[in-house]
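Sample A.
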Amino acid sequence: MKKLMYVFAIAIMAVIAQSCEPVPDLAQKGAVTGIVTDATTGEPIAGCEVYLSRYTSAERIAPRDFEPVGPSMVLTDSVGYYEFAHVHFGKYNVAARAEGYEPSDNVVIVLTDDNDDDWLEVDFQLVKEE
């Protein structure tokens, strides 16, 4: 009976370990940058909201239902440029929304020290609403 309980405990620990998200490396940071443009004209979209949130399994269900976590929204400048600086390494969702345009799908990124200069560029081309 003890042996069966031991095997059962190990099986439960293995299931729990596989279901956990990896812990981000909070000692290291990078940046996420990009440009948001109109998909038809290629013109930059100024004042576009770009969101960054920690990736979770719940966000896999509805990619357009994006809820930011904390102060994780920036506006694009006059040339459509945005930047999230000092982002802890880890897995994130990035999405863009602008008035008069369909919201983008979430883009899943992994920011690590393997990225060029510890930053990732994620550009968006938004489609006008009909």
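Sample B.
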Amino acid sequence: MRKFILCALAAAIFAMPAAEAKDNKSGLSLGSIAGALTGSDSSSDNGGSDILGAVGSFINNVTQNKNFTIDDLVGRWEYTAPAVTFESDNALKKIGGAGAATAVEGKLEPYYRRLGMTKTVLTVDKDHSFSLKMGLMLLKGTIEKEEDGTIMFKFSAFGKVSLGSVQANITKSGDTINLTFEATKMVKIITTVASKVNSASVKTLAELLGSYDGIYIGFKLKLAEK
């Protein structure tokens, strides 16, 4: 099914001459394709980057999967961008689909910069222990995958302060993973372990995330060292 969808998408885009891509008479455009696929309204021309971003988000969502073991996560993973997922497809549809989720990721980026989270590094060892460094914050613990596929991060801060077990959403595509945690728990983690934190930024971030139901936030990470 994934291969079929991707082939259909590629055929629709590349079979369309550039001149026809914005031909109102045809009633078909890259924007309308992106809107149909992502669930967002991209019929208006907001620039090629917006359209390609929506299409790219759709492709990324289709090709990612959860069929991996903790052993597949062993290595050093470095931050590339914010990541947003939702508790359910219904929650995703409420905000307008994958294109809108990409917009939320864009809103997170300034807060990540202020909090030093753009330097996030996740290191997973062979014994399934992990360290998650987010700016000045260092989290350690272990990762477990339960029988139903649920992935749990059992946190401790600096090896001393227990943060308990937190469910994570992880999808993997090649050498890239999306790692997200339920938003309110992520904010709690940040405020609990940060010795020097921009409290105003955290408060505003919490307010932003509070406007979305079932949202998970985290990071897109790329494998830097196996």
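B remarks: The two ends are 31 Å apart (CA to CA). The chain has two domains: 2-63, 70-225.
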